[in-house]
Design a protein that fits this description.
The chain has 424 residues and is α/β, with parallel strands linked by helices. The chain is built from 12 helices and 21 strands. Helix 3 links the parallel strand 4 and strand 5. Helix 2 packs parallel to helix 3 and helix 8 runs parallel beside helix 9. The structure holds pyridoxal-5'-phosphate (PLP). Keywords: Lyase, Polyamine biosynthesis, Pyridoxal phosphate.
């Protein structure tokens, strides 16, 4: 194994194919234990990000990838995506700055938040980020004042069809009946509208959602044409699931709908803005049990046979939580219980009802509500898989709690495919 420094200060462990993510989790946990440190840590498989980037190009060959920074802004992952040739979907001034500071050209940034404060629009204008979304008349007036040369993408509200893990509701996107009035307004203001975007909601489970949205976008293209606009951009938004089998099905249906409504001969440029698909699976979180409480309850009330019997359960307190990297519990409706794996073998395999709390002094800071676990000791660690989406980006320093350490790894066969500037 070798270690390389990447994206300023990120150490990447480059290893053989046979080494697994869990091997490295165990090794890092043991190393921290030897140093008598209890720090929570993340381990990031950069190889997974490379594979997913390549998989996207195979499965959705017509769509250029603009990674959605808000999903996870880890510097090593962003740098990696940059070197793979990805574009970036930014939600704010700070995200645009972060991406521009990596040396990314402004033409590879889409400012896809349809809701923007004036100073951010002015900033985009100053740094030549031209591609931006809108979905209402007042936004058009703001853009006309602050960035009249912007290339605008009209965000439509897709018809809901099919299962979505995290729907966006009606916060964004114009209804189809608003398309013509909006475009008429844009024309009056002398603005350039170049295409249409949508977002089906995060974690689309059925391709039908994309089919419906692509069909609606085609209708919007026609209305644009009737008004004299010549659209040449379709932005599929995000929403792609991280489960690879589901992704393949969803991508297949998106391709079919694209070929039907936007055949390649039409020369429409297509972009997609995946967040969850790229980031979720590559990250695991490994907090440490820093405190525990044994709870004995005496059973009673109703159940004659068990009356008077006592039941043992445990509450564990780990050094991360819902105000930290487990913010996905609050903002992404996540249930980390199904993602928990023990690191190491328990002394006694007997399982007890258990609750896992975070380390802040807030009653809401609970990671897992009710799970059967063998008895854990202080200093044991729990590894949570699929922790890369909407987790660290929602993290705060509430109660003065630090962010976890970040470790990175990548298998050599994938790492060697990259042409990177690294220092050994
Ligand atoms: C959040 C968001 C994305 C990414 O969504 P995922 O479901 O994580 O893929 C992409 N585009 C826009 C405009 C978004 O708001």
């Amino acid at each position: 194994m070798t270690s390389v420094t990447f994206a300023r200060n990120c150490e990447v462990l480059v290893h053989a194919e046979t080494t697994t993510h869990m091997d490295i989790v165990r090794e890092k946990a043991a190393e921290l234990k030897r140093q008598d440190r209890e720090d929570a840590f993340f381990l990031v498989d950069l190889g997974d990000v490379i594979k997913r980037y390549q998989n996207w190009q195979t499965q959705l060959p017509r769509a250029e990838l603009f990674y959605a920074v808000k999903c996870n802004d880890d510097p090593a992952m962003l740098k990696l995506l940059d070197s793979l040739g990805s574009g970036f979907d930014c939600a704010s001034k700070a995200e645009m700055e972060q991406i521009l500071n990596m040396g990314v050209r402004p033409s590879r940034i889409a400012y896809s938040n349809p809701i923007k404060q004036n100073s951010y629009i002015r900033f985009a204008s100053q740094v030549n980020v031209d591609l931006m979304a809108f979905d209402n008349q007042d936004e058009l007036v703001k853009i006309q004042r602050a960035h009249p040369n912007a290339r605008l993408v009209m965000r439509i509200l897709p018809p809901t069809s099919g299962k979505v893990y995290h729907p966006f509701g009606e916060k964004f996107g114009c209804y189809l009946h608003e398309v013509t009035p909006l475009l008429t307004k844009a024309r009056k203001l002398g603005l350039t509208v170049v295409g249409v975007s949508f977002h089906c909601g995060s974690g689309v489970a059925e391709g039908g959602a994309f089919r419906g949205a692509i069909a609606a976008a085609a209708t919007a293209f026609q209305e644009g044409k009737a008004l004299g606009f010549d659209f040449d951009l379709l932005d599929l938004g995000g929403g792609f699931p991280s489960d690879l089998a589901t992704f393949e099905k969803v991508a297949g249906m998106a391709n079919e709908a694209l070929d039907e409504y936007f055949p390649a001969s039409g020369k429409v440029r297509i972009i997609g803005e995946p967040g969850r698909y790229m980031a979720e699976a590559a990250f695991t979180a490994t907090p440490c049990v820093i405190a525990k409480r044994q709870i004995c309850t005496t059973l009673g009330g109703g159940d004659r046979e068990k009356e008077g019997e006592s039941r043992t359960s445990f509450a564990y307190y780990v050094n991360d939580g819902v105000f930290g990297s487990f913010s996905c519990v609050l903002v992404d409706n996540a249930h980390p219980g199904i993602k928990a794996r023990l690191v190491g073998t328990p002394v006694d395999p007997t399982e007890y009802p258990s609750v896992v709390y975070g380390h802040t002094m807030d009653g809401q800071d609970r990671i897992i509500n009710d799970v059967m676990l063998p008895e854990l000791q202080i200093g044991d660690v729990i590894n949570f898989i699929n922790m890369g989406a909407y987790s660290t980006t929602g993290s705060t320093s509430f109660n003065g709690m630090p962010r976890p350490l970040m470790f990175y790894h990548c298998c050599a066969s994938l790492w060697d495919q990259l042409s990177l500037e690294t220092t050994n």
